[in-house]
Amino acid sequence: MTKIKSVRTRVWNWKGPTVPPTGNFCTNASDTLWTKGDAMSSFRFHQWLTVEIETDDGTIGIGNAALAPSVVKKAIDDWYAPLVIGEDPFDYAYLWEKMYRRTHAWGRKGIGMTAISAIDLAIWDLMGKLVDKPVFKLLGGRTKEKIPVYYSKLYAGSIESMQAEAEEAKKNGYQGYKTRFGYGPKDGMKGMRENLKRVEAMREVLGYDVDLMLECYMGWNLDYTKRMLPKLEKFEPRWLEEPVIADDVAGYAELNAMGSVPISGGEHEFSIIGCKELIEKKAVSVLQYDTNRVGGITAAQKINAIAEAHQIPVIPHAGQMHNYHLTMANANCPISEYFPVFDVEVGNELFYYIFEGDPEAVDGFLDLDDNIPGLGITISDKHLHNFDIEE
Ligand SMILES: [Mg+2]
């Protein structure tokens, strides 16, 4: 029997060049406050956590987390690593429950569930490597020839710059395009007009034969969103994403019930029961958990079954291998989000600088290799000079 021998955690702090985002770049949860200074500070993630789990035969599984990496590292080192060391990685469902129940008083959402997710990803990567199969082949296999992807960037800026970016992206023939709003409740009617002008400008370039997704990143509130929805309807958005803060499930349900634009969310929801609530309360028309937050692949597969039974499509937040494998293996995951390779801006791009193996989209699709075992990523040393690494 293979046993887990060690758990190594590293926090990667980016110190390389960055593209500074402007004030009206993307609304976020701090945006409804009248805070002076840097409104974008809660929307920058220049740290990442890697978790490497080694078994006694020398196989290493890689997991990762991008939420509060230094705090998640401490939680893993102090609490979660001792719970899995000495165990058989193939007992993954037991290990998940053990981590979940032993830390239930404080760990079931947020930092704790992010730590569980990172370890669970490493365990799935390990299992794939140990049986010499890609993870998606352990989850149900290939449900689509290739994965269609949508382009996710188009942060708010000048209309000219956004249209130029959309023109450029269009050349790759993506299945859809997601843009971010730059204005929220505190910007009043003038801000509403600015938001609407940009959505119209996107349709002008992209036309109406592709999906257009709209992202609020929790920077609006219920009242503002109720006023915006009828105005957005004519642009036929595929969805409006995270209009209000993640805890306001009733608010999501109210907006979704308006029926004017499908509401999406879930990237800040945790665990099977958290997602069950979003589904059962009809809070979202599209569920967007992120596998490296929601509870890893073990939880995600259970959530997928609940969502499928309710006919709610699952389109995980962010690209990245842990999400691609689930999308490939589930017929109810129709498309993947795709962050183009780009200079470090928000921080979503960092995984391209830490890992190697993420597929690049070609003509609006990407594919996973049938012959690469595990998740198919390795930790790169190409950009080491641009990181401060905490062991
Ligand atoms: Mg989002």
TrEMBL record:
User: What EC number(s) does this enzyme carry?
Assistant: 4.2.1.90
Quick check: keyword Chloroplast in the entry?
Answer: no
Q: Could you tell me the keywords of this UniProt record?
A: Magnesium, Metal-binding
Task: Enumerate the InterPro entries for this protein.
Answer: Enolase-like_C_sf, Enolase-like_N, Enolase_C-like, L-lyxonate_dehydratase, L-Rhamnon_dehydrat, Mandelate_racemase_C, Mandelate_racemase_N_dom, RHMD-like
Lineage, top-rank taxon, reads Bacteria
From the UniProt record, which GO molecular function terms apply?
L-rhamnonate dehydratase activity; magnesium ion binding
Domain (Mandelate racemase/muconate lactonizing enzyme C-terminal): residue spans on this chain: 159-262
Q: Which cofactor does it need?
A: Mg(2+)
Entry similarity comment = Belongs to the mandelate racemase/muconate lactonizing enzyme family. RhamD subfamily.
Q: How does it assemble?
A: Homooctamer; tetramer of dimers.
Question: What's the protein here called?
Answer: L-rhamnonate dehydratase
Can you name the source organism? Paramylibacter kogurei
